[in-house]
C-alpha cells in the first residue's frame, strides 16, 4: 500500500468500523481512530506509546515475549500479516484478529504499518455466560481457523471427540458469517432411518405417506439463508449419502411426495467424531461426498490438550450450571482435575461440576466432591522429549509447566521438592505466565 499524505491515513483509519492505528517501524502508535483509543481506555496519551505495551502490557515486542509479532513478520516479508492475539482491552482480555499492512513510500520502502483489528465476539477469554471460552494455544489455533473460514461460504468439517464443543463451534461459525441473521439448523444424523431422513431434511406433502396428515417444512427449507449443521455426519448410512450428495451438488431437492424441485440456500457445516478418511478407505463413506463436505476441516482439541483452559472452563461452566453461580472451585480440586485425562472432554467436566455443586455445602468444590474416577485414571504424563537437543531454559519451562499442572500440594512443599526457595518458584512461575499467560500462578 502506498499513501500520499497523513490526511489520507486519517481517512483510512476513520473509515475502518473497528479499531485501527498507524504504527511506526519502531512499534510506536502514531495515529489511531476513535474506536482504537476507546478500546484501550479512551486516553489520548496512547499516541507515542508502543503497541505491545498498550495491547499486551509487555515491556518488549510480542516476539520477544513468546508470541508471534505481526509487525515483525510484516517488516520481514513486506507483506500483509494476520494473527489472532489476546489483548488487554477496556473490557478485560479479549480475542482480537489483527491485520497488519506495510505502507510503502514511492521508492517501495516500508515507512509505516497499518494495524486493523476485528474483535472476536464468538469466544471469550474470561468466564462468560454464553458461547465458547478458551485462551490456550490449542484453542486459539482452532479459533483462528474459525475466523478464517466463517466469512466465506466454504463447507466446514469439524473433527473432534465427543464433548469437545463441536456444536458450539458450528454456532460460532454461523455467528461470524454473513448468514448470522438467518437460522442455524441442526440435523442430528445418528439414528435417522431412510424415510425419516428424507422427510426431516426435505419435508413432505400432505398425504405423501400414511400419517402425513399435513404438509411439513423440512430442515433444509428452515435453514434458508442460514446454516445447516449436520452433526455426526459419519453416521449417515451409505444408502442416504447419495441423497445428501445430490442436494449439495445440485443445490436443489424435492419434498417427499412433491414434484417441483426446490431451491436450497444454506451454508454447510458438518461434524464427526469418526475418521471419515478411514471410512472412505473401507468403503463405508462415499469419497465424492467426503470431498464435498471437507473443503475446510477444523480439528477440535481434546480437553487434555488444552489443560491451561481448565480453570477458565470450570469457572465458566459453574456460571452456567443451575445452582453453580455462587459456588467456587478450590485450587486443590483444580489440580486434581488437572491430572485427569477427561475422555468425555468438556461435557464430562460439566457433568463432574454439576455433581460436585450438589456436595459443595460450603460453597467451594474440594477434591472430596469429585467422583472417584478422577483419582483412579492413570495420570497423563507429558514426558520431556529426550531424543532432541533443546535449550535448557525450554526444558525447564516444559518441566515446570508439567509439574504445575500435575502437582496437587502446596507451592511451599513443591519448592522444597524442587530444591529452590518458594520465592524462586514464584519468580519462575511468573516468568512462565508472562510468556504463556496461563493459569499457573495460584
Ligand atoms: N470452549 C467451550 N467453552 C464453553 N463450553 C464449552 C466449550 N466446549 C464445549 N463446551 C460445553 O461442553 C458441552 C459439550 O459441547 P458440545 O455439545 O458442543 O460438544 P460436541 O463435540 O458437539 O459433543 P457430541 O459430539 O457428543 O455431540 C456443552 O455443554 C458445551 O456448552
TrEMBL record:
Give GO BP annotations, semicolon-separated: regulation of DNA-templated transcription
| Keywords for this protein | ATP-binding, Nucleotide-binding, Transcription, Transcription regulation
User: So which domain of life are we looking at?
Assistant: Bacteria
Write one Gene Ontology MF term: ATP binding
The record ties this protein, via InterPro entries, to: AAA+_ATPase, AAA_lid_NorR, Homeodomain-like_sf, P-loop_NTPase, PAS-like_dom_sf, PAS_4, Sigma_54_int, Sigma_54_int_dom_ATP-bd_1
Establish whether keyword Transcription is in the entry. Answer: yes
Per its UniProt record, what SUPFAM superfamilies does this chain match?
A: Homeodomain-like, P-loop containing nucleoside triphosphate hydrolases, PYP-like sensor domain (PAS domain)
Keyword Glycosyltransferase listed: no
Pfam families attached to this UniProt entry: AAA_lid_14 (PF25601), PAS_4 (PF08448), Sigma54_activat (PF00158)
Locate the Sigma-54 factor interaction domain: which residues? Answer: 132-358
The name this protein carries in UniProt is Sigma-54-dependent Fis family transcriptional regulator
